[in-house]
Amino acid sequence: MLAILKSCTISGYQGVLTQVEVDVTRGFPHFDIVGLADTAVKESRERVRAALGNNGFKLPADRITVNLAPAAIQKHGPVLDVPIALGILAASGQIPASPRLLDTVVVGELSLEGKIRPVRGVLSMAITARKNGLSVMVVPRENAAEAAAIKQLTVIPASTLRELVAWCLGREIEPAQARQEHSPDYSACVDLAEVKGQQAAKRALEVAAAGGHNILMIGPPGSGKTMLANCIPGLMPPLTDAQALEVSQLYSVAGLLRHGRLITAPPFRNPHHSASLAGIVGGGSVPRPGEISLAHHGVLFLDEFPEFRREVIEVLRQPMEEGWITIARARASYRFPARFLLAAAANPCPCGYYGVDGGICTCTPGQVAKYRSKLSGPILDRIDIWADVPAVSFEKLRQRQQAETSAVVRQRVLAARERQRRRLGNKLNADMDNRQVAQHCTLDSASEELLARAFTRLRLSARAYQRVLKVARTIADLAGREKIASEDVAEALSYRSMEGDDFY
Ligand SMILES: Nc1ncnc2c1ncn2[C@@H]1O[C@H](COP(=O)(O)OP(=O)(O)OP(=O)(O)O)[C@@H](O)[C@H]1O
Ligand SMILES: [Mg+2]
Ligand SMILES: [Zn+2]
């Protein structure tokens, strides 16, 4: 007999509707799975065999063929265990054909004793099920909350194979309820109010968050660079519904969606400089999103920037330009979104005290030059804001007076982004192309002159010119000005003053 079930697998970070066809016919006992199954799907055979046996069912001593369609798409992982087991039960007549399975997507991994274990990527699968007009989905109980985030999908949470078989035969399982909408969770961020002093650096963060500008912070040890970077996502507005869904899919596929809670605040990722290339850009035999994708619509923080290997820095180029990364495999290539704000931090030299007031640098000129050369190159070219983070004085640290909170700054950022949205649609100022810069960043003659003088003085490149204009545009947007004023240009220029050779 033939049984056909609907299931779903993951390709990249998206779901692919998959049909599980199980045929049981008389013949020499044999159990085969065909249709481009990877080893994990083949191992499924052993789990299904044990789970059936341990629950009072049996693997029929006949010819069992499982076909996974579409055959052209690689199926990864154990997510097909449950539909394969149900298919065998139906095709061998151990349970009657259930009308409940007709338009239902079934996913889940089986333990040997028949428990249904959680799988990665259920959110993406739920989206795919809904897109294909299917309205019921059976998922592992631990994954129920994320599937239930998709409206108009009835989610049946299943804990064991036995429970699920009973459901197929008519017993009820309470469908999972969508979680109450909760406000975006900013609790992981450091609040700006906790950082004493550093007014200029805080302002630079605000501008960066408002326009989506990449930022590099330079300062001596212990001045608060790491702390400040941890504030940035808290200055950014909550994700839109579409962004939240996209980011949450990436986390779901990476197995990082906690309690099925969608990600609604901009994410913050800070990979260590010793992290592997695959860990940063994504990879593995079954490609999983890397840090740059987990930072999608949020912040990627590279602390101790000069310590990162050149090859890691190099691969950031494509995603920083295009907003996504491609991971090629023998049979297919996968595309993961990766549009992030890059924040980086560095000391001014190896010992950390070069050019610091009251500090004594113990580095040789050669060491400083070598270090300095790491602070240039293709990625640094894409940094719009160079922020000086000087050591904080004792008096400032002891200050009691309440500083501005992240929530207050976030309101200003939100207003500035709204101005950008009206002008550029989905883009932020940092993403303007040259044509848009020419159109939206016109200067009056005073500003033009200021810019010209600064360029000669700071010896800035032509590329820097575009960047200064974009940052000036953001500063004007924060001030609610439709026309860029010379004070906006002056402030934008101040974020490049460290870049010229004068700094060293
Ligand atoms: N401006 C500040 N206000 C309040 N606390 C601060 C400030 N700067 C530093 N600190 C305190 O010092 C600690 C170290 O700061 P942080 O790690 O951010 O410095 P850093 O600039 O990243 O140093 P390093 O260059 O050594 O990495 C913080 O955890 C915080 O407790
Ligand atoms: Mg630090
Ligand atoms: Zn030094």
Task: Please render the helix and strand layout as text.
Blueprint (H helix, E strand, L loop, with lengths): L1 E10 L2 E12 L4 E5 L4 H15 L9 E7 L11 H11 L12 E3 L2 E2 L5 E2 L4 H10 L4 E5 L3 H5 L5 E5 L2 H8 L30 H13 L3 E4 L6 H5 L2 H4 L5 H13 L14 E2 L7 H5 E2 L4 E2 L1 H4 L4 E4 L7 H6 L1 H6 L1 E5 L4 E5 L3 E6 L18 H10 L10 E4 L5 H5 L7 H19 L9 H7 L4 H14 L3 H17 L7 H9 L10
Parallel strand pairs: 3-4, 5-8, 8-9, 10-17, 10-18, 11-14, 14-17
Antiparallel strand pairs: 1-2, 2-4, 6-7, 12-13, 15-16
Helix pairs in contact: 1-2, 6-16, 6-19, 18-20, 19-20
Bound molecules: adenosine-5'-triphosphate, magnesium ion (MG) and zinc ion.
Adenosine-5'-triphosphate binds next to helix 7.
What level of helicity do the residues show? 25-40%
The top-level CATH class of the largest domain is: Alpha Beta
User: What is the CATH architecture annotation of the largest domain?
Assistant: 3-Layer(aba) Sandwich
- Provide the structure class: alpha/beta
CATH fold node name of the largest domain: Rossmann fold
Number of domains: 3
State the distance separating the first and last CA atoms: 78 Å
* Cα-atom radius of gyration: 28 Å
In terms of per-residue confidence, which ranges show pLDDT below 50 for 5 or more consecutive residues?
A: none
Helix count equals 20
CATH superfamily of the largest domain: P-loop containing nucleotide triphosphate hydrolases
What portion of the residues fall into strands of 2 or more residues? 15-25%
Ligands in the model, by name, code or SMILES, are: adenosine-5'-triphosphate, magnesium ion, zinc ion
Q: Walk across the major sheet and give the strand order.
A: 11-14-17-10-18
Q: Label the overall shape.
A: elongated
Q: What's the overall average pLDDT, rounded?
A: 91
What is the total tally of β strands?
18
